[in-house]
Specification:
Length: 186
């Protein structure tokens, strides 16, 4: 009898740990159960079967304290670097270690205007995703979906909205630090 009681308690704990209840902790993004269509920067579309998913199938938007912003398929914030110009990246080496470029073949959710996205060739020959001609990056100190620690970093890194427009101003993160040891503002 005691063994069955222990098994019953273990089962209840497992169900609670797996989110078997109706309450959510707000950490995971659950998508509606209908089909999702995504388009990559090259115009190819992909439709995936519906069902609850933990990650979107492409670049999409998320609501943050900065407003609605672009995020990668896993919900991590995407940034542009104000020093980039002419659609070309200027972030390499240590900069790219801190601010990894987004591959150009990353799918784009159908919720977005796919015509805003494209690609640029990096000096190593890889292709990087762009929005409105600006290369897109992640920020490695953002450790959870929805983190925006790179916002207004050194006054040159910014999040963008669904139209690829820079979001900045007084909402900027106070987590910005000064120039790096090498004197560069990345």
């Amino acid at each position: 009898m005691k063994s069955r009681l222990n098994m019953f308690i273990a089962l209840i704990l497992m169900v609670a740990a797996c989110g078997g209840g109706d309450e959510t902790d707000g950490d995971a993004t659950t998508l509606p159960s209908d089909d999702t269509t995504t388009t990559d920067a090259g115009g190819a579309t992909t439709t995936t079967a519906g069902g609850d998913q933990e990650a979107m199938d492409g670049v999409h938007t998320a609501q943050t304290e900065l407003g609605t912003i672009l995020v990668d398929p896993n919900g991590f914030t995407l940034y542009i670097f104000a020093a980039d110009s002419g659609g070309e990246s200027t972030c390499y080496d240590a900069c790219a270690d801190l601010w990894p470029p987004i591959p150009a073949n990353t799918a784009i959710s159908s919720e977005l205007d796919g015509s805003l996205f494209g690609g640029t060739t990096r000096t190593d020959g890889s292709e990087q995703l762009t929005v409105n001609g600006m290369p897109l990056y992640l920020y490695t100190p953002d450790t959870s979906p929805g983190d925006t620690l790179g916002q207004d970093f050194n006054g040159v890194w910014f999040v963008v909205d669904a139209d690829g427009e820079v979001i900045g101003g007084p909402e900027a993160s106070s987590e910005s630090s000064g120039p790096t040891d090498d004197g560069l503002d990345y």
